Amino acid sequence: GAVVSQHPSRVICKSGTSVKIECRSLDFQATTMFWYRQFPKQSLMLMATSNEGSKATYEQGVEKDKFLINHASLTLSTLTVTSAHPEDSSFYICSAGPIGTGYYEQFFGPGTRLTVL
Amino acid sequence: QKEVEQNSGPLSVPEGAIASLNCTYSDRGSQSFFWYRQYSGKSPELIMSIYSNGDKEDGRFTAQLNKASQYVSLLIRDSQPSDSATYLCAVNEGYGGATNKLIFGTGTLLAVQP
User: Could you give the percent of chain B with pLDDT greater than 90?
Assistant: First the structure.
C-alpha cells in the first residue's frame, strides 16, 4: 500500500504555544488529505479536509482559527495547533489516497501524539 | 446524515476460530467500502477494500459486500491473538474517489483468546 508519514510522532509543549504537524505522502500524490483527532478509547473524529492549493474544509464544531491547515504541495499538508491548551492533548492522524489510480483507498499516517502541559 | 453502524463488541473468539465482523450503512448509493484495523495507541491500517457485490479474499481475510442489504462483513480465518484489535468499517461518502471523506463506524473490538 501507499505510505503516509507524519512528523513529529510525539510532542510535548507548554500551554499557549503553537505546534505544527506535518503529513507527507511518500510515494504518491494527493490533492486531498484528511486530518483526524482521536481521544483515548474514543472513535476517530474527522477535523478537516485539506485541499491542495485551496482552503481547507472544516467539520462542524472545529475552530478553523485554532487548527490551521496548509496544503502547499501534492505531497505535504500541515496542521498547526495554535495556542494549544491541555484540552487539545490528543492523537492527531492524517490520511490520504492516491489520485488517478481508479481505486479509492485512503492510507493513514502513524499519528502524532500531542501533550499540552 | 450518512451512517455506518457496527457492533462495538467486544467480540471474543478462541484462537484458530473464524471471527465475523459486520457493518451496515445507510446510503444505498455507496460504492466503496473499507476495513481498517487499529491496534490500541496506533493509527488505523487498511486491510481490505471492496467495491463489488460478493466476496474478496486476501490471505486469512475475506470481505463480503451485499449492496442490496447494505451490508459489509469481514471474516478472519484462523484467528490469532495478534488479530486482537479494533476493526473499523468505512464507507466512501461520495460515489468514488480518494478525495472523498470516509464515514467510519465506531469499530468492533475483537479479542482472540489463546
Answer: 85
